[in-house]
Amino acid sequence: MKNFFGSLTLGLVALFVFSPVAVQAAESVNVFYKAEVLSIERSTPTPDQQTEQTLSVKILNGERQDETVQVTHTVSPEYKNRLFERGDKVVIIETPGIDGPEFFITDHYRLPSLVVVVVIFLLIAVWFARKRGAFAIVGLVIGIFILAGVVVPRITAGWNPLAIGIPGALVISFISLYVAHGWNKKTHVAMVATLLSIAIAAVLSVVAVYVTQLFGFGSEDAQALQLAGQRAIDLKGLLFVSIMIGVLGVLDDVTTALAATVEEIHKANLRLSTKELYRRALNVGREHIASLINTLVFAYAGAAMPLFLLFSLDLQPFWVTLNSEFMAEEIVRTLVGSTALVLAVPITAVIAARAYGKQQK
């Protein structure tokens, strides 16, 4: 418990150093509400084979709470499953119209279901990992707060993404490792290895982005961000940061797991030399990396499944799709992350072997 509170204190000091900045939100004439579908007034086909629903919905929050409004919702033939039914919870948007406000449905309201999924995950993590699981969740919450409450607002305020993103990644690593694993030699080894690996990932991402001539415009989200913001955001710098943050979670797994493995090998045979510990750590690390590379690649591939479907449609030559900035960003993101993970193994092995190995005279 002493280690936990010591780590938490250091984390709070870091939060103070990286205190949030106030960001003026862009003014919007649109208002969003939660609502419930009371009835389907009309559901008719249109000449172009779409289905047009006229719904009566009750607003559940905000200034218009308990008001009932009518909403028209049109669904294409291929999206019949997006037709709404009585009792559905939805998100509606109010926009100014010529004859007064107009209302449109934007999505299903699914936050309660997400909360259930999160609670199930937390319960399983704490049940299986006990105290370590609880501390890991605390570290995760603090890390998310730093990312969402400190790093993101400063980037939105016009800061250089690298200037705040790299220190932010280091602070998140520090807090997540020490809160989850305590203040001990094993965590010190993992922390040093993680810092060195993050530095390598930063260099690799900068080199790869410049060599491949990426500018951060590879996704529609990035383009929308540039148009929606009140200040110009360095999308290339944001790409650097996103690559490092993406590597961060898996990197912690590699360094902590390998450091713990070396510690256990050392406890099993206290007479093992530094060289022997390094050799055994590499053997374990190679097996770990073989599976982690697949995990990382397929995690990105799963997120990019619509892109793979585009390949099958033959809308343009394969090499043109492969050359696109969106595809190049995903390739660079995957390869830089995988390279950093591979290099983290010998780095952690060297540091752990020197920390635990018996020095030969």
Automatic annotation (TrEMBL):
It comes from Candidatus Kerfeldbacteria bacterium RIFCSPHIGHO2_12_FULL_48_17. Keywords: Membrane, Signal, Transmembrane, Transmembrane helix. Residues 1-25 form the signal peptide. This is YibE/F family protein. The chain crosses the membrane at residues 109-128, 135-156, 162-180, 192-217, 237-262, 289-311, 331-353. The keyword Signal applies. InterPro entries: YibE_F (IPR012507). The keyword Signal applies.
